[in-house]
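Task card 7
Instruction: Convert sequence to C-alpha cells.
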Amino acid sequence: MIIGIDIGSTTTKAVAVQDGKVIRTIKTKAFDAVTSATGAFGKMIMESNARISDVEKIIITGAGALKINTEIFGIPTHKIEEIKAIGIGGMFLSGSDNVIIANIGTGTSVIEATKDKITHLGGTGVGGGTITGLAKELIKTQTFDNILNLADHGDLTQVDLLIEDISDLDISFLNRKSTAANFGKMLDTAEKEDIALGIINMVYQVIGVISMFAAKSRNKDTVLITGNGSKNRIGKKILDEISVMYNVKFVFPADAEYATAIGAALSGN
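Output:
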C-alpha cells in the first residue's frame, strides 16, 4: 500500500492506493505540517484497519511538504512537486492522458497534463481563500457552510452591475443577465446573502474564464475541476453557466478534492 498526502494551507488530504486503485480517502486539519501529515497518516491506518508494516512508502506534496525532511514513522517518505501530482491525479480521475485541469484550492492552478508532459499553464490567486477572506471582512463570517447557506438566498442584482443595467440589448454573445462588473452596483439595500453570492460569483467567474481561455489555447473544450473548490455547489452552477456561454465543458469527477493526494500516491507505482 502506498499513501499519498497533500499537505495544504488549510486542509490535509490523504489517500491509500493499492494495485493502482484508490482504496481509502481521508482529510484532517491541523496547525502545522508535521501534525497534519502524521495525523493524516495515523487516521488512514486506523480507518483502513491496516498495520504500519502494510505501508510500502509515503509520498507527500503540497505547501506543507517543504517542512518535512525526515521519514514518517520510519517509513520511506518521498516528495513530489504539487503541479506534477495534480496532473497525475487529474489524468487518473478523468480516465484520459490529455486533459486541462483547474485545481481550486486557496488559489487556483491551471494545468495541462498529458502522458508525455505536465505543464503549469498559469492560474490565479483567486480561489477559496478569496471567498473566506472577503466574507470575513464584508459579512463577518469565514465558515464555508455559513457563506454557502447565505449565498443560497442571495440576489446578484443587488451587488453586480449586469448588462441589462447598461444596455437594452444583449452585447455580443452575452445576454442581458450577464455580469458587466462584479460588485459594480452594490446597492445600499444589499444584504449579507447578496454579498455572499456576489463573492462566490466573482471568484468562480474568474476561475471559469481563465480556465476556458487555457483550454481554448490548447484546442480543448473540456476542463477537469479538482481541489476543495470542486465541491462548491454554487460555484458549480456558475461554471455551468460559463460552460454554456463559451461552449467549454467543466467536469467534476468523483474524489476530485483528493486529486493531488491521489497523484502523489500514484507517482510511487
